[in-house]
Amino acid sequence: MDEIMNSTTPSQEVFQRVWARVMGSAAPEVPASAPAPAPQPAPEPAPVSTPDPQAQPVMAPARPGPYRPQPTPPKPQPCCLRQQVLSSLEQWQMARLLARRAGNQARQMTNIAAQLHQQAKQLSTAYFIQSGVRYWPVAQLTQPRMATYVGGLRHLYQRVQALTQEFHTCRTKADTKDLAQLYGQLAQAGEKRCALLRSLLEQTHL
């Protein structure tokens, strides 16, 4: 016993077996080496998503741009020679109808009708100079309607007055000097015509 324990190079396993017999218990087994840890499986790669060709792309909301005011549509020009020719012819036709009902005012109404016809010719000539187109819309005229002579005279006065005021406006907006001069002459003649029609209305004994 002493010889074993005093040995200079005792084996650890032999010592423990002997010690176990002395102590009456089984010698614990000492593993020669700890088992190596089991290898861990490598993590599977994350699945790569494939874009669906039928899927609709999600568009980011567009940012509102700077406010841009809409262009204002051009206003119609009051100096329309074609319309003025037609209006003058309509007034001429109305004056002719009134002359047939005027009685003692027939001569004045006939003179007014002749003036309106001449006015239409002057405006038609100005339109031809500007456009090269002859415009004389007599075929578009319709038979004027009037219940009474006084009512028709009043209506003619109102139309002559409105067209005369238009001539004043167009005189300041004319493109050429000749056209401005024509509008000035027509405006002066229109004022005299309005005064005559007003005088005829005063003579009808309302």
What's the short version?
The chain has 206 residues and is an all-alpha fold.
Properties at a glance:
mainly alpha; 6 helices; 206 residues; disordered N terminus
Number of helices: 6
Cα-based radius of gyration, to the nearest Å: 58 Å
Q: Please count the beta strands (DSSP E, at least 2 residues each).
A: 0
Uncertain regions: pLDDT < 50 for 5+ in a row? Answer: 1-8, 30-34, 73-78
H and E order: HHHHHH
Basic shape: rod-shaped
Cα distance spanning the termini: 166 Å
Strand content: under 5%
Major sheet description = none
* Secondary-structure content class: mainly alpha
Q: What is the average per-residue confidence, as pLDDT, rounded to a whole number? A: 79
Helix content: 55-70%
List the helices and strands and how they pair.
Layout (H helix, E strand, L loop, with lengths): L1 H4 L6 H12 L57 H21 L4 H26 L17 H25 L3 H26 L4
Please characterize this protein's 3D structure.
With 206 residues, the chain is mainly α. It is built from 6 helices and no strands. Helix 3 runs antiparallel to helix 4, helix 3 runs antiparallel to helix 5 and helix 4 packs antiparallel against helix 6. It is rod-shaped. The N terminus is likely disordered.
